[in-house]
Structures are given as structure tokens and as C-alpha cells.
Design a protein that fits this description.
With about 140 residues, the chain is mainly α. The chain is about 80% helix and about 0% strand. The chain has 5 helices and no strands.
Length: about 140
């Protein structure tokens, strides 16, 4: 699990960051908004609790619920991973095409981790750590 989670965090930071910067740089008009910048004690609360709640809720919706709903139509293989990854990417539409691409890649890795582990907590932890790297460091 540790290798997978560290690999996902590194893939998001390097590959996902490159995808986001490159595509959003080429198509800046696709970025419709940005995450708010917080400071002081609110930053600590946001990093510890806010990002944790985001990771938990998105993993419940895009891994657990989407898998449960789509499994009867797509089986539990590559098509399911792809479909849930594209749903996860589409959810991030307002942050630009680059972020959509990054979310699709990371969504696929997180779904693969969820399927391989049989538990949701590794995907939640991987998602939480990628968000910390993206927003706090």
C-alpha cells in the first residue's frame, strides 16, 4: 500500500502537475476559477480538515458509489476504471482542461488502488496526500 500511495502522490505532483501546467498554459480560457487562498489558522484548519473531508467525500462518490453503480454495466475491469476516471475529471471542469487531464490520470490510479486493495481508506489517504502536496506545499 505504501508504495502505491507514494507512487500516486509522486505521479500527481510530477506528471499531473506537468499536464495541468502545459494544457492550462496553452488553453488559459478553460480555467474558469481558482481555489481560494487562505492564511493563518484557517489555512491549518483547511489543510487538516477541509482537504480530509474533500478526499473522503470524493472517494466515496467517485470510487465506491460509482463502482457500485457502474459495475453491473461495465464489469469490474478497465472500462470501469476509465469511466470513473472520466467522471472524476469532469467533476473538476471549472479548473481548466489541464486539471481535468490531471484528475483523469489520478482518478485512474486511485480506482486501481481501490480495486487492488479492496478497501477505500488507501485511496482516501492517497487523495488526501496529493491534495496536501498540491495545496499546502
Amino acid at each position: 500500500m505504501t508504495v502505491w500511495i507514494v507512487g500516486i502522490v509522486l505521479a500527481d505532483h510530477y506528471l499531473g502537475g506537468w499536464i495541468r501546467r502545459t494544457i492550462n498554459g496553452l488553453l488559459p480560457a478553460t480555467v474558469l476559477g481558482a481555489y481560494p487562498e487562505v492564511q493563518g489558522w484557517l489555512l491549518v484548519v483547511d489543510i487538516v480538515f477541509g482537504l480530509g473531508l474533500v478526499a473522503l467525500s470524493e472517494e466515496i462518490v467517485f470510487r465506491r458509489c460509482a463502482r457500485h453503480l457502474l459495475q453491473s454495466y461495465l464489469d469490474d475491469g478497465f472500462a470501469l476504471v476509465l469511466a470513473t476516471s472520466f467522471l472524476f475529471g469532469a467533476y473538476h471542469w471549472w479548473t481548466g482542461f489541464g486539471n481535468i487531464g490531471e484528475a483523469v490520470v489520478i482518478g485512474g490510479l486511485l480506482m486501481t488502488l481501490y480495486r487492488r486493495s479492496g478497501a477505500l481508506w488507501p485511496a482516501v489517504l492517497g487523495h488526501y496526500l496529493t491534495d496536501i502536496v498540491n495545496f499546502a506545499l
